[in-house]
Amino acid sequence: MTRGQFPTQEEVNAVYRRRARFYDWSANAYYLIGFREWAYRRRAVEALQLRHAGTVVEIGCGTGLNFSLLQQRIGPAGRLIGVDPSAEMLDQARRRVAARGWNNVELVQARAADFVFPADVDAVFSAFALTLEPLFDEVIAKAAEAIAPGGRFVLVDLRMPESWLRHLGPVLTLLVRPFAVSLEVARRQPWKSLRRHFSQYSYWEGYFGVVYIAIGERAESLT
Description:
- The protein is α/β, with parallel strands linked by helices.
- The protein has a single domain, classed as Rossmann fold (3-Layer(aba) Sandwich).
- It is built from 9 helices and 7 strands.
- The protein has helices spanning 9-19, 23-27, 37-47, 67-74, 87-100, 136-146, 169-176, 183-186, 190-197; strands at residues 55-59, 79-84, 105-109, 121-127, 147-158, 200-206, 211-217.
- The chain has a 7-stranded mixed sheet with strand order 3-2-1-4-5-7-6, with helices on both faces.
- The radius of gyration is 17 Å and the shape is globular.
- The model has no long low-confidence stretch (mean pLDDT 85).
């Protein structure tokens, strides 16, 4: 284990165990450098094209920051499954769910790679989380099998830019180190797995190529 490089799930969990109570506040701090995090979250949720009463799985749901955006689309008749390995983060999510009176949320404490997707889910979503899972390709492959025809997997996350900014990689990662992102983590490319496992794929970049939204869609059945 290389200290500070966050190669293992145990190291990542330790970071989020410490940050759980203050995660929501700290996640919004990047607005100070012009990073419009909520604009990217909203755009990604819109890309899910969720239907009313649909079922959505959020991988790495954390404190449930995205739950209100997802609930607006699925409504009380829908089903929202939030998956996260951190008990402390899920405690915060549970408080959020209780405060809002949502009765259609199921919280699952599990590593993304260990989670068993229910059959025929309408969508899978992950925001600034899947890159932290070394086995992200396995997660995406399993999701692709579980998603119903016409359903989508939408991923919004950070990446190492391909522009001249890539030379500032060590500096850029210092800004996100509080969220367990290191150079090793930033160089992972889960969007390529999404492109490989889904027959239909689209991709968008923002914030100078540092943030991206990738969309994988399962083809509609011909029968």
